[in-house]
Amino acid sequence: xxxxxxxxxxxxxxxxxxxxxxxxxxxxxxxxxxxxxxxxxxxxxxxxxxxxxxxxxxxxxxxxxxxxxxxxxxxxxxxxxxxxxxxxxxxxxxxxxxxxxxxxxxxxxxxxxxxxxxxxxxxxxxxxxxxxxxxxxxxxxxxxxxxxxxxxxxxxxxxxxxxxxxxxxxxxxxxxxxxxxxxxxxxxxxxxxxxxxxxxxxxxxxxxxxxxxxxxxxxxxxxxxxxxxxxxxxxxxxxxxxxxxxxxxxxxxxxxxxxxxxxxxxxxxxxxxxxxxxxxxxxxxxxxxxxxxxxxxx
Amino acid sequence: xxxxxxxxxxxxxxxxxxxxxxxxxxxxxxxxxxxxxxxxxxxxxxxxxxxxxxxxxxxxxxxxxxxxxxxxxxxxxxxxxxxxxxxxxxxxxxxxxxxxxxxxxxxxxxxxxxxxxxxxxxxxxxxxxxxxxxxxxxxxxxxxxxxxxxxxxxxxxxxxxxxxxxxxxxxxxxxxxxxxxxxxxxxxxxxxxxxxxxxxxxxxxxxxxxxxxxxxxxxxxxxxx
Lengths: 298, 225
Fold this sequence. Notes:
The complex is a heterodimer. Chain A is α+β, with helices and mostly antiparallel strands. Chain A folds into two domains: about 1-45 and about 150-295, no CATH class; about 60-135, Alpha-Beta Plaits (2-Layer Sandwich), CATH 3.30.70. Chain A contains ten helices and six strands, in the order ααβαβααβαβαααββα. Chain A has helices at about 1-10, 10-50, 60-75, 85-95, 100-105, 125-135, 145-190, 190-200, 205-245, 265-295, and strands at about 50-55, 80-85, 115-120, 140-145, 250-255, 255-260. In chain A, the strands form two sheets. Chain A has a four-stranded antiparallel sheet with strand order 2-3-1-4. In chain A, strands 5-6 form a two-stranded antiparallel ribbon. Chain B folds into two domains: about 1-80 and about 155-220, P-loop containing nucleotide triphosphate hydrolases (Rossmann fold, 3-Layer(aba) Sandwich), CATH 3.40.50.300; about 95-155, no CATH class. Chain B is built from seven helices and ten strands. In chain B, α3 runs parallel beside α5 (about 140-150). The interface of A and B includes residues 199, 200 and 202 of A.
């Protein structure tokens, strides 16, 4: 540690430049990582929702609703149809707004619409089903998720591609800046390195202080990024809760683990920290390795 | 044992730093390399350290041909050799103790062993009371003593010195040479020097070089160009 602090104190501007670039890259990478996680999990969420939801007028007799359901089932185009009566709709509403007593007071079961949640066998049947439902007399509203899913899918693809390009740019920029700043430091220690080589120091021994400093910078930058994000999330928690009020939870498959993205979960935050830490250390150590490699002519 | 067998070093412009130089230095021998500037003294030391490569000929150290393309153990070879330079090459940001300990650290000695060895070396070069002092606070003679301590601290078999008294006044030069004298018979010592008084008074083996050629090899010689 003493060695690292001395090295930073000896070349404060180079160290600061390296640290800031690394922090900037890690911060932006985290923004990309979190945005992608949210959009992907939102997409997963929407894909598990009914593809078509039809809301009937609140006073529609159940027999009319069942007739629509039976006609649709008989068409052979649906996979399943779930009927939600007014009481069930009220239970769902209560669950979604359990933290807001004012909203609960204002609503009762009899003003909520009964609905059918319909899953089609094939996406191509969705427009046909939606059109059929719109023509029924007691129908209040038809929610057709395909457009939303398609838009979100297209947004995810754009975000994924632009993230890849942006991430590559950040990676390249960080490596170039860190390699350059480390090279400056090495140039200042040129005589010491020459001496160490002459007295039989291995390349590993000569590299060790630079690698240690790189690890220190990587860890510090990752730690700072993590604390800023965690702090930001905690600060915005109330706002996010309101904004995502209709969404009970967002999950994402990460290899074999099912990660909970929303509500904020410690496992997700820890994973983010580990990824940022690994990324930061790899960039910093890799850059130091490149800088010393050039100098040591290995 | 160091063996030079018809070693030549030719520079790109065609001039020879060494021209078919052959000699043998036995273990624990004390040898002076003398000759005018550009005679090839430093080139011999640099070839032993594998800082430069000869154009032709072979160099054997402890029966290993270090000039062979198959020789890849440069780090191991250098760990057998202590080096003292004319300009001391003492690290400015490390104190005396740390400067000397560096030789042990590159060989991964345990801290306790390093500490003991550095203390012994400091006693040998009479710097026991200055272990915490930084180079900027030391005289030229003291800096050279630090460099010698660094070269001998971990019991390296060979000690090469390139003009070790070149930057020192006569009195300090003699103090430095007394340290080399103490190490006689314990190590193979090769000293490249211009200092005729020292060479003449030591009466050790002298290899005389001129324009890259070995022109004299005297068992108990003096500074006779």
